[in-house]
Amino acid sequence: MSSIHISQLANDICLFKLDMPGKSANVLTDQVYADLDEAISQLESNPPRGLILVSAKPGIYVAGADLVKISSNLDWPDDKIHAFCDHGRGIMSSFSQMPTVSVAAIHGVCVGGGLELTLWCDQRIAADHRRTLLGLPEVKLGLVPGWAGTVLLPRMIGLEPAVRLATSGDLVGAAESLSLGMVSQVVPQEELVDSAVQLIESELESGAYVERRRSLRGPVTNMPESTESLRRETIEAIHNNHDVGPSAARQVLDHMIDSAGKSLEEACESEKSVFASVWGSAENRGLLHYFFLDERAKKTRP
Q1: Contact 3/20 with Cβ under 8 angstroms?
Q2: Catalytic residue among 44, 116, 271, 283
Q3: Is residue 138 annotated as part of the catalytic site, yes or no?
Q4: Has 233 been annotated as catalytic?
Q5: Tell me: the pLDDT tens digits for 184-218?
Q6: Residue 127 in this model has a pLDDT that exceeds 90
Q7: How far apart are CA 9 and CA 109, in angstroms?
Q8: Cα–Cα distance, 51 to 299 (Å, whole number)
Q9: Given 38, 44, 138, 266, which residue is catalytic?
C-alpha cells in the first residue's frame, strides 16, 4: 500500500496526501521516498496546474528522516552518505522543476527532512494550531540537514534567522513561522486546502513562483551587515546551548556563512560534505543513543 494518495480537485489541481500505512507519523523512509518518486513520475507525464501536499496524520505533517536507518548505518563510507543526500534531495527537488505550482499545507509537526520537503515547494501555508511546529532540529542529534535545509532556508528568510534556527535546533510555531517568512499564510486548519487552492490560482496568475524559483538558485540576498559578528554571536549561543551537539552546530554555522555567496548547486554540495563529516561521529552516536533511550522511557512512563 502506497504512502502517497493522489486525488483530483477542481480546476486541475491535485491533492498529494502523505499517509504511511499503520504508522502514527509520516517519516521519510526508503519506502516513502519510493512512493514519492513514483507519484511524482505519474504526474510528470501530464502535470496538473497545481499540487497541494498535505498529511493525513493528525498533528503530524512529516516528522523527519528515518532515524532507525541512520542509526543502523553509522559506519557508512562517504560515498554512501553522499548518495543518501543526493537521492533524497533529487526526489524533493522535483517539486521545483515541474511546470506545476506546489503548495505545502502544513498542520502539525514539520521538522528536519519534513521541513526540507516543504522548502522545495513553491509556497507553504500553516494551520493556526498549537501543534504546528517547524524547524531543523538535526543538531540536537549531532547531525546537520542533508536535503538542502541549510541552503534553501537562508535564501527564503535571510541568512541570520536561518543560521539561528539551524544551529539551535529550535522549533517555531505558526505565528513565528509567518513572521520569519517560512510560510506565507496562517489559516484555520479547516481552511488549509481551500486556502492552498486560492494561493495556487494567485501564483499562476502573477507568475511569482517562476521568479522565486530563479532567485533561489543564486546566492543569499538578505545578508547581515557583518557575517563575522553573526559568527561570533552564534558560537557563543552554541556554547550556551546544552541541547545541541556543539561540533555539528559549529559545522552548520561555518557552512551556512561560507556558502551564502554560492549558487544553490554549489551550496548543496557543501552541505553534503558537512553532512558526511558529522555522520557517525562520536557526538552523533552519543546523541542518537540518548534519543532512543529517551523515546523508550517515554513509552514506559505511566
Answers
A1: yes
A2: 116
A3: yes
A4: no
A5: 999 999 999 999 999 999 999 999 999 999 999 99
A6: yes
A7: 25
A8: 37
A9: 138
